From TrEMBL:
CDD domains: TLP_HIUase. One of its GO terms (biological process) is purine nucleobase metabolic process. Its EC number is 3.5.2.17. Substrate binds at H8, R47, Y119. This is 5-hydroxyisourate hydrolase. It comes from Psychrobacter pacificensis. Keywords: Hydrolase, Purine metabolism. PROSITE patterns: TRANSTHYRETIN_1. Gene3D superfamilies: Transthyretin/hydroxyisourate hydrolase domain (2.60.40.180).
């Protein structure tokens, strides 16, 4: 059994979804060295759906399972704000979270040029 993961970014300054943001998913094993599992890009609605993750070619089928453990999602916010010609305080946002069971995990990001917040969504 494995969990599924999605994300959604809303630009709170513009009041719109944040499209075309590069997102990376890492597993954080007990050793602490992160392992890049997958990457994606937010769609026109600011979402990365569970089926939109592109797993790295070096990752085998068992590693593609989102089992219990610690993970990070990294959002490349610098490129997004550069495209809008805005100076941003955070060049990237890293959200560190734990998967505890095989349910669906949704990691939303509320974003502006000088701040962000997140929570466990549904």
């Amino acid at each position: 059994m494995s969990a599924t993961l999605s994300s959604h970014i809303l630009d709170t300054h513009l009041g719109t979804p944040a499209a075309d943001i590069a997102v990376r998913l890492h597993r954080v094993p007990d050793s602490g060295d992160t392992i890049l599992l997958a990457h994606g890009t937010t769609n026109h609605d600011g979402r990365v759906t569970p089926d939109a993750w592109q797993f790295e070619s070096s990752i085998d089928d068992t590693e593609r399972q989102l089992d219990t453990g610690r993970y990070t999602v990294t959002f490349d916010t610098q490129a997004y704000f550069d495209a809008q010609q805005l100076t941003a305080f955070y060049p990237q946002v890293v959200i560190d979270f734990v998967i505890k069971d095989a349910s669906h995990y949704h990691v939303p990001l509320l974003l502006s040029a000088h701040g962000y917040s997140t929570y466990r969504g549904s």
